[in-house]
Amino acid sequence: MIDAHTHVFPDEIINNPAEYFSLDSEFELLYSKPGTRIDNGDQLISSMRSSEISRSIACGFGWASNDLCVFGNNAIINLVNREPDKIIGFGTVSFAESFDDGLAEIHRLSEQGIRGIGEIRADKQGFFNITDKEYTALAQTLIENKLILLLHVSEPVGHQYPGKEGARLELIEALLIKLKGVNVILAHGGGGLPFYSYMPEVREYLDKVWFDTAAFPFLYEDDILKGLISAVGAEKILFGSDFPLISQEKVISYIEASDINKDDKRRIFCDNLNHLLENNTFVG
């Protein structure tokens, strides 16, 4: 099994999270509730071992400050260097303060062997506010460096929870169109976007888009997987947990309990992400 969506933090943040709450309101919103876990790479490896997960994508947090993104990215780079067979690194960048600084960080991440950018909170990190010329430069950089883009998306209806606001579907749609040609993973099932794929104009820009199952037990009944398979095909769905906000074991059990066939479960747990990674390898 390969987990397409986990988060790890530097020890400095784990040991003193309150210091960082004052630096980023979104981080405070998501992680200040008592009992909310903030884990490092060692804790992820331990969870993988107990869950029998062979590899995980370790993501950074969607900091509004690019300096904080760099700080978190360095921890992920170190983890990848230490556990190259277990960890696939994704770093985050912010354009909220400077597009050039964010783009420079993408180049640095690629040079360090990082495979993707995410989980991006596009509203907080300035991805909705750059120029058309900058969108073109971003798309070219991601494509040329064979980097996958993981975007946070939330559904426009249903119960409220911290972090639900911001990533509206119409804005995500505009971003996908501007970044056409980039391989994109939409977190949390794409906020319902797969069900609009029955519109031909929507299906047209989903050819390089995948959807992960991060936090699904908090969001949907397990029949959602049958609906997603009907809408976009089993080959477009990736097992993702959102560790440590939700345990890897919980999402594995959720998928196993779903009334979908064994072959589709294998695709979701392993084959689809393997295929995406193998076909998105940079050859310099």
Number of helices: 13
Strand order of the largest sheet: 1-2-3-4-5-6-7-8
- Radius of gyration using CA atoms only: 17 Å
> In CATH, what is the homologous superfamily?
Metal-dependent hydrolases
Would you mind describing this structure in some detail?
The chain has 284 residues and is of the alpha/beta class. It has an 8-stranded parallel sheet with strand order 1-2-3-4-5-6-7-8. Strand 2, helix 5 and strand 3 form a beta-alpha-beta unit. The protein is built from 13 helices and 8 strands. Helix 6 runs parallel beside helix 7. The protein is globular.
Q: What tags apply to this protein structure?
A:
284 residues; alpha/beta; globular
Furnish the topology, listing elements before pairings.
Blueprint: E1 2-7, H1 11-15, H2 17-21, H3 25-31, H4 41-51, E2 55-59, H5 66-82, E3 87-91, H6 99-111, E4 116-120, H7 132-144, E5 148-151, H8 169-178, E6 184-186, H9 200-203, E7 209-212, H10 216-219, H11 224-232, E8 237-238, H12 248-257, H13 262-278
Helix pairs in contact: 5-6, 6-7
What's the short story on this structure?
The chain is built from 13 helices and eight strands. By secondary structure, it is of the alpha/beta class.
